[in-house]
Automatic annotation (TrEMBL):
Signal peptide positions on this chain: 1-27
Superkingdom in the source lineage: Bacteria
Upper classification of the organism: Bacteria, Pseudomonadati, Pseudomonadota, Gammaproteobacteria, Alteromonadales
Keyword vocabulary terms for this entry: Coiled coil, Signal
InterPro entries linked: Porin_dom_sf
Descriptive protein name: Phosphate-selective porin O and P
Coiled coil: 31-65
Amino acid sequence: MRAELKLSSLAILVTAFIGGVNCTAQAATDPAILEQAIARQEAQLQELKQQLSELAAQQKQQQVQQADYQTKTNTAVDSVETAADKLSKFSFQSYGTAVYTSDEYFDNVQDTTPERRNRFDLERVVTEFGYQFTDAWSMEVEIEYEHGGTGVALEYDGFDEFGEFETEVEAGGEVMIEKAELRYRPSKAFGIKFGNIHVPIGLTSMLHKPNQYLTVMRHRSEAAMIPAVWNENGIGIYGEMADFHYQAQIISGLNSEYFRTYDWAASGHQKRFEHVNGDDLAFAGRLDYGNFKKGSAVGVAYYYGNTSGNRHKSNKINVDGTVSIVSVAAAYVEGPWILRGQYLYGTLSDSDAITQANKTTPGLRPGNFAQLGSQSQAFFVEAGIDLNHFTSLPLTVFANIDYSNPLMEVETGTATKRFENTWTSVGINYFPIPQIVIKAEAGLQQVAVASIPDTNFFALGVGYQFSL
């Protein structure tokens, strides 16, 4: 169009020049010819104006289209940048373990002849979702699928007299929220979190991924005294100053209706109920020097809370049932050397009254309760050598000892030694890649009763962990 317009313009100029010459030559003798020439030039100028007007309109339309295209491009870029920005604030992590165990079991506390059982267990698969709303506000949700999860199925039984639909449990595991917390942390020195939060009593609450402990399964000693990866509803403050890390929490307390001889207060965790009773709250605090998740550290923790107010049958007891727990832990991880240990000591007030109340509460099983310990203790020590520092083999060899005595003392009478257990073992951790660990462990379990023989156990496990 522009080329055609230029040619038209040139033609007009040439015509005008020729016409001008002719007009000059003939104007004096023929005014009619001059008038015709002027008319032709005016017509050509009018045509040129029309073409210029059309060209201007086309240019304006092109500018509008270009601006619209630029706006759409900017919008698309902004949308991509917004999506990328949101995605960068989202985090996902997962870890899991599967184990094979060969253990010798006793059918009951009176049995002195063990029976060996070989078992497979998809121990757990955990997914963790996080989102960073702003520099200060964030959230995290952790969902755990234990022992293959749980589920029910509706089936039709045609062999019943009239035919019957039956609902059957397909898997006996659990699906649980292990953490669901909101966090506000304006600085490293101070933060606040609330929701369903981890209780910082026991190293398992911090070191629960398969590459964070050496044994095939998490430490038996801790599980025989307090809830493993203990989580409660509540609010807490936390922070880091220099190499010190602190936590202080007000959380939902335990329920003494489910305290048991063999695991002391561990079964009192209210995870099994639809609603968590909060008539008795508890305090939990921790102070660490160093970082257990990253390597070397030492730390102390303390828990204190009443438990009777959270009983569903509160009329069965009128005492506090106070649980107090002290934890001391240390870790040395330097070069090829790995050394970790923990000691737990706990007291339970009114243990005789709780024992008697549990015996007479309908619906609790077993009906004949053994006595609860007024004092309990447990410890573990694990030591390993990472051979990858000396060879190209990504292998860690370790030795471990776990000890638990949930009946360290009782209020009246003599505490039985049947539940005092010691586990000693040796094993290996093999890392084919950093995100995967294959473990093997063999050991001996000893009960502090002379008539009960020592038993042997063997375990194989595989675990993974990754983060996006």
